[in-house]
Design brief:
Blueprint: H1 3-12, H2 19-33, E1 34-38, E2 44-50, H3 53-66, E3 72-78, E4 83-90, H4 96-102, E5 106-107, E6 111-112, H5 124-138, E7 139-141, E8 150-154, H6 157-169, E9 175-179, E10 182-187, H7 190-200, H8 203-253, H9 261-272, H10 278-283, H11 291-309
Antiparallel strand pairs: 1-2, 2-4, 3-4, 5-6, 7-8, 8-10, 9-10
Length: about 325
């Protein structure tokens, strides 16, 4: 089961506590994934198509609980994609027009409402239910082991902007992108995605997202430490190679045995341990020498090579 399907399955098991929340969630479900047909004055029918069983169950449950409308369910299986398609139909019936008006989908005397049903969204619970319904109908969330990304596909600019405003009242920020004649509201930050999951009621999946972020944080920290260590090793290797060249030059000009004892000790140790950093090299001495002491021995070696290698005055 995809991560999106797991989230929708959890959302489908939430029982709104008020009739207003039921209405808000059903309104969003019908508006986002429903198609309305007109059959003459005040006569309509609704078809809702979805590939998600959780969405189909929720639509039927809410429709029967809130309005007791006549509905039919057809389940079709795609041989090509090996998925089920659910078709819910609310045929033309006497109460349907009034019920659609109650959902804020129809405005009596004016046709289909373009924006969100503000009259249904006066409470926070109703707004949470509305966003939950919109996500169940047209939402997608990426597996948090990859990117943090959540989006809801809707039709109509007014509805998209209204839904974004509703989301903002709940503490998250959604951007709108026009896509092939439709609109996608999307959230890409961890905080916004987590906030929306929680306000919709997907508490269990919100914890999964939090755990994924914690694992990413640990992994990123390890990667940073490894990269820093690799960079340090590369710098140490480069510095050690330069020091070995300097020691070879000193051997040619003066002879290792003729160098001051501390400098000679440094040269011999470096030849024995070309892989160590300057600080680690000092730890091999008895007694150990500090990094500062090792650096001063290196400077003394550079001075000796510089003096011996300089042209002699006539």
């Amino acid at each position: 089961m995809s991560f999106t399907a797991q989230v929708k399955d959890e959302l489908s098991r939430i029982e709104p506590a008020t009739r207003m929340a039921d209405l808000a969630q059903l309104s969003a479900l019908v508006r986002v994934c429903g198609t309305m047909s007109f059959h003459g004055s005040g006569r309509y029918s609704i078809r809702i198509a979805t590939e998600t069983g959780a969405v189909a169950r929720t639509v039927i449950k809410l429709t029967h609980r809130v309005f007791d409308l006549e509905t039919s369910l057809t389940v079709r299986r795609s041989v090509l994609h090996k998925t089920r398609n659910y078709l819910i139909e609310m045929p033309e019936q006497d109460r349907l027009a009034d019920d659609l008006a109650g959902l804020g989908i129809l405005v009596p005397g004016h046709g289909i409402a373009l924006g969100v049903p503000e009259g249904l969204l006066k409470t926070r619970e109703a707004r949470c239910a509305f966003v939950r319904g919109a996500f169940m109908a047209g939402g997608f969330i990426a597996d948090p082991r990859g990117d943090f990304h959540l989006e809801i596909a809707v039709t109509g600019e007014d509805f998209a902007r209204g839904l974004a405003d509703v989301i903002s009242t709940l503490g998250a920020s959604a951007r709108i992108n026009r896509r092939r004649g439709a609109y996608a509201l999307y959230l890409k930050s961890f905080d916004d995605v987590l906030c929306l999951l929680r306000v919709m009621g997907a508490q269990r999946m919100a914890r999964v997202v939090e755990a994924a972020r914690a694992r990413k944080s640990v992994k990123n920290d390890v990667n940073r430490r490894v990269n820093a260590e690799v960079a340090n090793q590369a710098r140490s290797s480069s510095a050690a190679a330069a020091q070995l060249d300097l020691i070879d030059r000193a051997d040619e000009l003066v002879g290792i045995s003729q160098l001051p004892p501390a400098v000679r000790e440094f040269c011999l140790a470096r030849r024995d341990h070309p892989e160590l950093s300057l600080a680690a090299l000092g730890e091999t001495f008895d007694p150990p020498a500090s990094k500062s002491a090792m650096y001063h021995r290196l400077l003394r070696l550079e001075q000796i090579v510089g003096d011996e290698g300089a042209p002699k005055g006539g």
